[in-house]
Amino acid sequence: MAVLSRLVPSIASAYGLQAVFALIFVPQQNEKYYDFGGAVGWLSTTFLSLYYPALKAKYWNGVPGSLPALSSFAPRQLLISAAVGIWAVRLGSFLAMRAIKAGGDSRFDEIKKSPRKFTYYWMAQATWITLVGLPVYLVNVFPSRIHPALGARDYLAVGLYASSLLFEVIADRQKSTWRKAKNNKEHDEEFISSGLWGISRHPNYLGEVGIWTGIWALSTSSLQTAAYPRGAVAVSGVPPLERAGDKKFAGNPKWQIYKNSVPIFWPWGPTK
User: Most buried of the four, 38, 106, 150, 160, by CB within 10 Å?
Assistant: First the structure.
């Protein structure tokens, strides 16, 4: 019950913050800051899970003193929180700037016209932050003294996280470069099929799964549970992107060749 009570503030903040964003942007039919709202949600819930006991003591119970130094936390707590922070700032800023430059996000062209549906998506974002971030929040709410020392499994997890983050960054950069060249009339390709996009139709999401698998693996030594094995894999934008591609490139023989020859997700994996 003590652990649950410490989780509640982080979960409540996830939904509360997205509700605030919804109150601001749903009436405006403005989806440009949707991903920015997600990044802020990740950062705030992670911070709150780490500092909630100290914040409660200081501002609720009136205990004088400053917030605890970073050195008071277990190395695993610092690593896992930093991993989320780096990922959230990088991806959130990238997606937000892309939406702002493009004048919007095509995923929400119809959704934003319905206040109920648009609000649902903001709440769905809060649910995503809650469920996928659960191992991070659990690690952070446990007292630092109970966390075991870092071992080989933890270093492998950090390696998986770092390599997957690099993979995602490269994939995003390759597509941005491709799109810029297309806008400059340097090629007339309708979809990208080069670089990492030549070994997976969704290399950015592949990197995303690796990132969250690494974060989950980093948490397991402290949690010692297999109850949260595939959270990041289950939350994926691949199916709607596939449907959008089929609709946009219907009748394009190059798209069908690409789909039949390039794996949908894992390199050297199935194409369907």
Answer: 38
